[in-house]
Design goal:
Blueprint lengths: L6 H4 L7 H13 L11 H7 L7 E4 L3 H12 L4 E4 L3 H4 L12 E4 L8 H4 L1 H10 L4 E8 L2 H13 L5 E7 L10 E7 L5 H13 L1
Parallel strand pairs: 1-2, 3-4
Antiparallel strand pairs: 4-6, 5-6
């Protein structure tokens, strides 16, 4: 019942800033405007924001999860599921013909080296597609690992990188105390939106 401390606390609020309101609107649509029963994963959230002509490639390594993802993708036009390590395989997809694109990187972090390993494919992607938008999610479990991730991104020579983080417990209190996103080439409006959204979410 972890949702009770997250989406459950936001669900009925009427005072959220615009970025949070837009997010909650998608969640409500997935529940038919009724009670909170379902929470969409990132493929569903991406599809909810998809515009005509957009294409979506989804990568998954776990066989059972991939089977579900493949069935899901088959029901949607312009969506492809690939059973592969997305950190390696997505490099071959850039630059896209449209010269615009967003790459969401969501490693498992089950292996501690993932914190620094992600910097190498991010650097390769950036070299091939410097104008792309990259969103790298990470959990806050041990602060030193997050610091290593930040150093690795800086050392990769990526200039327009921003970090946004929300923690709900002090570092070192056991388990995951929060999570963050490193955004490369974010829309210029994002910093202002996060300046309103993050303090609201923290409160």
């Amino acid at each position: 019942r972890e949702y009770e401390g997250g989406i459950g606390r936001l669900w009925r609020r009427q005072d959220s800033p615009p970025a949070v309101t837009a997010y909650l609107s998608i969640i409500r649509d997935f529940n038919g405007g009724g009670d909170l029963r379902r929470y969409p994963g990132s493929p569903s959230l991406a599809l909810a924001l998809q515009r005509p002509g957009d294409r979506l490639s989804l990568f998954e390594l776990h066989p059972t999860d991939f089977e579900q993802l493949e069935k899901y993708a088959a029901g949607h036009r312009g969506v492809k599921a690939v059973r592969a390590d997305g950190l390696r395989e997505c490099v071959g997809l850039v630059p896209p013909a449209e010269r615009r694109g967003l790459i969401l990187m969501d490693p498992s972090y089950e292996i501690k080296t993932d914190y620094t390993r992600v910097a190498e494919p991010l650097q390769r992607l950036y070299r091939r597609f410097a104008t792309g938008i990259y969103a790298l999610w990470y959990p806050v479990i041990e602060r030193r690992r997050v610091a290593g991730l930040e150093r690795a991104v800086r050392d990769a020579g990526i200039s327009d990188a921003h970090l946004f983080e929300l923690t709900v417990r002090p570092d070192g209190s056991g388990g995951m105390s929060g999570s963050g996103m490193i955004l490369v080439n974010p829309p210029w409006t994002l910093a202002g939106e996060m300046a309103a959204a993050l303090p609201y979410l923290a409160e």
